[in-house]
């Protein structure tokens, strides 16, 4: 197949994602999944507040479907909206929240630490926040906030959820990147020690009991020997 078809398809997917991100920004955009099916195109949209994207009697989602079919030439699109189970563990939602806080005038350190604390309190294994741009002066710089465990390379790095957002402030554009290690992720270096079976546990208890009895018996014999020694000394 011609490479131009792949390029054209990826560009169209990117434009669709940018359009739906803009439309779902008020509802808390958390992710997008596009699937091609024999019946058409299935689009799964994850948001924080589904009611705002569905609209009254489904008017908003119907408008989005018609827009995708008319302007982006999507064949028979079907939009499914699902609620994010935990917004504080969704990297894209937290990136959007942090960018909105910066636009409202929050200091970047306060906003970064507050966002990091909320993510970790939600149960994440680790999180990293990167804020870059003109934070305090005319020169752009990068600040990082990190807690817990984050993988940067190898197979475990694919388990990290990443979200991007931008904040439009008076000094300029500030980029926000949020990386979250979900709590249910199983890392290769994690080892769980299982408790022994019931039979082995009973055997261990019996062995410990025998050891204690032998120790008590030996202690008793030692005491008797000491008493005999004292009696001999007194008799002499």
Instruction: Please give the radius of gyration in angstroms.
Output: 31 Å
Q: CATH homologous superfamily of the largest domain?
A: Ribosomal protein S3, C-terminal domain
Low-confidence stretches: none
Main sheet: which strands, in order across?
5-4-7-6
What fold name goes in the CATH topology slot of the largest domain?
A: Ribosomal protein S3 C-terminal domain
- Counted up, domains total 3
Count of beta strands = 7
Q: Label the structural class.
A: alpha+beta
User: Roughly what percent helix?
Assistant: 40-55%
Largest sheet descriptor: 4 strands, antiparallel
Q: Would you tell me the overall average pLDDT?
A: 84
Order of helices and strands: HEEHHEHHEEEEH
Beta content: 15-25%
End-to-end Cα distance: 111 Å
CATH architecture of the largest domain: 2-Layer Sandwich
Count of helical segments? 6
Q: Kindly provide the name of the CATH class of the largest domain.
A: Alpha Beta
General description of the model:
- With 236 residues, the protein is an alpha+beta fold.
- The chain folds into three domains: 82 residues, K homology (KH) domain (GMP Synthetase, Chain A, domain 3), CATH 3.30.300; 94 residues, Ribosomal protein S3 C-terminal domain, CATH 3.30.1140.32; 43 residues.
- It is 44% helix and 24% strand.
- It has six helices and seven strands; from the N terminus they run αββααβααββββα.
- The strands form two sheets. It has a four-stranded antiparallel sheet, covered by helices on one side. Strands 1-2-3 form a three-stranded mixed sheet.
- β1 and β2 form a beta hairpin.
- It is elongated and about 95 Å long.
- The N and C termini lie far apart (111 Å).
């Amino acid at each position: 197949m011609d490479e131009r078809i792949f390029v054209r398809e990826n560009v169209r997917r990117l434009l669709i994602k940018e359009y739906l991100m803009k439309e779902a920004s008020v509802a808390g955009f958390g992710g997008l999944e596009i699937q091609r099916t024999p019946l058409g195109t299935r689009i799964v949209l994850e948001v924080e507040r589904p009611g705002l994207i569905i609209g009254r009697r489904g008017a908003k989602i119907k408008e989005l479907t018609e827009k995708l079919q008319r302007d982006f030439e999507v064949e028979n699109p079907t939009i499914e909206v699902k609620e994010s189970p935990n917004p504080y563990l969704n990297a894209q939602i937290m990136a959007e929240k942090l960018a909105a806080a910066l636009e409202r005038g929050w200091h970047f350190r306060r906003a970064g630490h507050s966002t990091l604390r909320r993510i970790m309190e939600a149960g994440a294994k680790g999180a990293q926040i990167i804020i870059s741009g003109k934070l305090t002066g005319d020169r752009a710089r990068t600040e990082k906030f990190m807690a817990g465990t984050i993988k940067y390379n190898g197979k475990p790095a694919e388990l990290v959820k990443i979200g991007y957002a931008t904040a439009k402030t008076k000094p300029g554009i500030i980029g926000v990147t949020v990386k979250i290690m979900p709590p249910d992720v199983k890392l290769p270096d994690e080892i769980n020690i299982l408790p022994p079976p019931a039979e082995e546990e009973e055997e261990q208890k019996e062995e410990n009991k025998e050891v204690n009895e032998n120790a008590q018996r030996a202690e008793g014999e030692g005491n008797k020997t000491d008493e005999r020694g004292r009696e001999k000394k007194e008799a002499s």
